[in-house]
Amino acid sequence: MFRNRGTRRVRDDNIQDDNIHGDQHDHLPAGQAPGRHAPAASGASGGSGAPGGPADLGDAALDAYSRVVTRVAAQVAPSVASLRVRTSRGAGAGSAIVFTADGFLLTSAHVVEGARSGVPVGTAEFTDGTERDLDLVGADPLSDLAVLRARGSTPAPAALGDAAALRVGQLVVAVGNPLGLTGSVTAGVVSALNRSLPTRSGSAVRVVDEVIQTDAALNPGNSGGALVTADGRVVGVNTAVAGIGLGLAVPVNATTRRILAALIRDGRVRRAYLGVASARVPLPSGLADRTGQRHGLRLAEVVRGSPAGRAGLFADDLVLSVAGTPVAGPGDLQRLLTEDTIGHPVELTVWRRGALVDVVAVPDELAIR
């Protein structure tokens, strides 16, 4: 157990904004999703049924749309497998995406819930009829991501993109295996960005940020499948059906790549633990002008005996920055509490009773039970 003396000091200087950049693992394919849309049809105005008229324009638009979807389907569907899994919780099904040339597959953690690392978890069937046995490499329920490895050769990997480049209204294609129907394709648009998805593993609770909302049809069995842009890059892992015309996908971004790298390397993801419950709140106008930020993190609860409690943080403290980086919501704090901060002093700047106070805490490792 790491102890901290709760170093604190009142300070009057402004908060500095230092950016933290995560490294990407060399094992993973990198790529930026340029966010291209389906080609728009063009044509001169004219009477109904005449060349270039409304009827022609509609057909041309449908053809352009169809060309994008069929091209993406042909490019990505061979890399998306239909899963049949067997775990301690029973039999199940889902989808998975080949994302490396040496047979690693990406899926949703809830698809393989109850499986053990290094133990056969089921089989993958590809669109060409090939079947491969699968082993679980590692799962991270708090991000709803898992990595499998096929025993034997697999189709070429799909290219991973970057969900940070997505725009609302952009065309996306969902590739997966709903209801066990291998190689199914649906299309829609990005309905919204920056949704949140609560996850749980034992007593640990977390929120997955920057979740993608789409109206591309998703059904049971799509979980673990690919959400793909018009240029054929995977920008999301389909994870939930939230309602008719409302599906959610975990984004593929720098955070996802770090998680996948940790799962391949260690079979698990280590996270730091402070022991606080918090909420995003607006800053008082005077404090906002002074710090240059508009929101902070109000501590609703500090767990007794936790790293935060030992450091001298209290309920109702308003956290403004962690390790010099401004925080405006719980997701910001989660992203900063990485494996690298476990057992190392981390300075938090808080607003307390009209003064800026620096508190130094030493995070423990989050225990997953």
From TrEMBL:
PDZ domain mapped to chain residues? 272-354
Q: Quote the SUPFAM superfamilies the UniProt record gives.
A: PDZ domain-like (SSF50156), Trypsin-like serine proteases (SSF50494)
Protein's UniProt keywords contain 4Fe-4S: no
Asked if Zinc is a keyword of the record, the answer is no
InterPro entries given for it? Answer: Chloro_Bact_Ser_Proteases, PDZ, PDZ_6, PDZ_sf, Peptidase_S1_PA, Peptidase_S1C
Alphabetized SMART domains for the sequence: PDZ
Task: Indicate what this protein is called per its UniProt record.
Answer: Serine protease, S1-C subfamily, contains C-terminal PDZ domain
Organism this protein belongs to: Parafrankia irregularis
